[in-house]
Design goal:
Layout lengths: L1 H17 L11 H4 L10 H15 L17
Length: 75
C-alpha cells in the first residue's frame, strides 16, 4: 500500500513539473522561425509568391478553401 502511494505521488510530481517547462524558443526568436527562408522549399520566397498567385487565380472557384472574392488577388 505504501509503495503504491509513493509511486502515485512520484508520478503526480513528475506530471505537474512537466507542465512548467519553459519553451526552448523564446518569444523574441520566433520571428526568425517565421521567416520564409526557414521553410523546406529550395526557394521559399518564389514558392510563396507562386502559391499566392495560385490562390488568387483559383479564388473564384474556391480551390484550397482560400480567400474570398474574385481572382484579382487584391484581398
Amino acid at each position: 500500500m505504501k509503495c503504491t502511494l509513493k509511486l502515485f505521488v512520484l508520478l503526480a510530481t513528475i506530471l505537474v513539473t512537466g507542465c512548467s517547462i519553459t519553451p526552448w524558443v523564446k518569444p523574441y526568436e520566433r520571428g526568425y522561425l517565421a521567416d520564409p527562408i526557414m521553410s523546406f522549399e529550395p526557394d521559399a520566397v518564389s514558392s510563396n509568391y507562386m502559391h499566392h498567385v495560385y490562390q488568387a487565380r483559383e479564388g473564384s472557384r474556391g480551390a484550397e478553401g482560400g480567400g474570398s472574392g474574385g481572382g484579382c488577388g487584391c484581398n
